[in-house]
Specification:
38% of the residues lie in helices and 15% in strands. The chain is an alpha/beta fold. It has a single domain, classed as TIM Barrel, CATH 3.20.20.150. Helix 1 packs parallel to helix 2, helix 3 crosses helix 4 and helix 4 packs across helix 5. The mean pLDDT is 96. Bound molecules: zinc ion (ZN) (2 copies). The site of one zinc ion has 4 residues, from loops.
């Protein structure tokens, strides 16, 4: 079984270009935004683009295709106006993901500022359920992946338990699974770095979200310290985490079914390729 290792890529010139770009830089999976991540309005997917993407992915054996939801979407906002916009925008995200044949759509559970966490959790589940209602996902591999967050105040999903709670609520209503982000895991307080800490953290993930449900690991080193709750990604091996946690993850048979995708900064040309190369070099 080949490891699936890739990186978040831009889609200048059309989403299908990212497939060739992925292959050029030695990746066999990748993540994109299907629209501008900071704008509410999104264009429809051109069926020709979608077809080209399917063909190229099959030909070059590139997958899974992971799409990251726009940062504007907040499915548990206290404002019903923002929530309605978020449900509509997230429905658009699901439609575009299905049109492109994406396996996974990553979603941050949102911010419940002004509410209680329980109210936020309930709203997030309701909103996601409404967003996917009636869309034809049943005969596809498509899953919504709930991503753990850095644990900032009022953000839902800052612990494995919180991600598990949301997945549990949605289990019978939508295809949901989990994306864990190494940087978010570390800065939210889990020790993913020491050998014992790694085992303990994975044990906690197994007891909450379950390891089978983890489909994607976002592989990001961190600029900030463990427990800082500061979400600042760093190049693999150059941050407060170092190379070891990535080596452990990539060689952990319990995650053989996962895709490993870097969302590292692009400071210089070639940074995407470099981070993919570093991750690949850690596989034994
Ligand atoms: Zn994310
Ligand atoms: Zn992430």
């Amino acid at each position: 079984m080949t490891k699936r290792i890739g990186v978040h890529l831009g889609t200048t010139g059309g989403a299908s270009n990212a497939v060739e770009r992925a292959q050029e830089i030695g990746a066999n999976t990748f993540q994109i935004f299907s629209s501008s991540p900071r704008m509410w309005r999104a264009p429809k997917i051109d069926p020709k683009q979608a077809e080209r993407m399917r063909e190229l992915r099959a030909k070059l054996d590139v997958g899974p295709l992971v799409i990251h939801t726009s940062y504007l979407v907040n499915v548990c906002s206290q404002s019903s106006e923002v929530r309605e916009k978020s449900v509509a925008a997230f429905r658009g995200e699901i439609e575009r993901a299905l049109a492109l044949g994406a396996e996974y759509l990553v979603l941050h559970p949102g911010s419940w500022k002004g509410l209680t966490r329980d109210e936020g959790l309930k709203l997030a589940a309701e909103s996601i359920e409404r967003a996917i209602e009636g869309l034809p996902w049943q005969s596809t591999p498509f899953h919504i992946l709930i991503e753990n967050t850095a644990g900032a105040e009022f953000s839902l999903g800052g612990s494995f338990e919180q991600v598990a709670e949301l997945v549990e609520r949605l289990r019978h209503h939508a295809p949901v699974a989990v994306c864990l982000d190494t940087c978010h895991t570390w800065v939210s307080g889990y020790d993913l770095v020491s050998a014992e800490g790694y085992e303990e953290t994975i044990k906690q993930a197994a007891a909450t979200v379950t390891l089978e449900a983890v489909r994607v690991w976002h592989c990001n080193d961190a600029k900030a310290a463990r427990g800082s709750k500061l979400d600042r990604h760093e190049h693999i091996g150059e941050g407060t985490m170092g190379l070891e946690p990535f080596r452990r993850l990539l060689n952990d048979a319990r995650f053989d079914h996962c895709a490993f995708i870097a969302e590292t900064p692009v400071d210089d040309p070639g940074d995407e390729e470099r981070n993919v190369r570093v991750l690949k070099s850690l596989v034994k």
